[in-house]
Amino acid sequence: MSKPLTLTERKRIAILDAAVAEFRLHGFDATSMDQIALRAEVSKRTVYNHFSSKDELFATMLMQLWNTSASTLDIAYQPNMPLVEQLTKIAAQKMSMLSDGNFLDLARVAIAATIHSPERAQEMIARLGEREENITLWIRSALADGKLKPLDPLFASSQLQGLLKASAFWPQVAMGQPVISAEKQRQIIDGAVHMFLACYGADGAV
């Protein structure tokens, strides 16, 4: 049985939830700590007790979003399963995340905020770089198992995800296009997986 949350922990969660809602509705610049406090039903002083500035709150919110999104990917490497099956599952899970409306809304807010503040963007990139994404770790495991040709796991991971995001993320975030259909998602997934394995799959390992 999990330990009950303390009042302080509950307030912190309420503040982060309120921040997500306010940033989604109004964007970074138009959102104030007063609005967040009001929605969280706490005092403004309580908000500042947890987060010293709106920038810190925003960065924490995005890191939480990223951590939650990454943890939803169940992609541990399976040495006895064909690579094409594993990568198809990985790509489908990633596609599901990229197609989530809440994720897309917050991505728009994050991108707009970092464009106007290079310092904020550099800090977030540095924090994200402190840990490897699950897909990178899967690639590293497949490489160690001899199933992939020599490659840079981080670069190969960015290539695979780029194939998905080119059609199922950037058009929606940057140009407001609707989320693509399930059939189109399957086409993109199949194409990305086969292109990745055609380039990096070791002979007889696909």
Automatic annotation (TrEMBL):
Keywords: DNA-binding, Repressor, Transcription, Transcription regulation. It comes from the Bacteria. Residues 32-51 bind DNA. The keyword Transcription applies. GO terms for molecular function: DNA-binding transcription factor activity; transcription cis-regulatory region binding. The keyword Repressor applies. InterPro entries: DNA-bd_HTH_TetR-type_CS, Homeodomain-like_sf, HTH-type_TetR-like_transc_reg, HTH_TetR, Tet_transcr_reg_TetR-rel_C_sf, TetR_C_Proteobacteria. Residues 9-69 form the HTH tetR-type domain. PROSITE patterns: HTH_TETR_1, HTH_TETR_2. This is Transcriptional regulator. It comes from Solimicrobium silvestre.
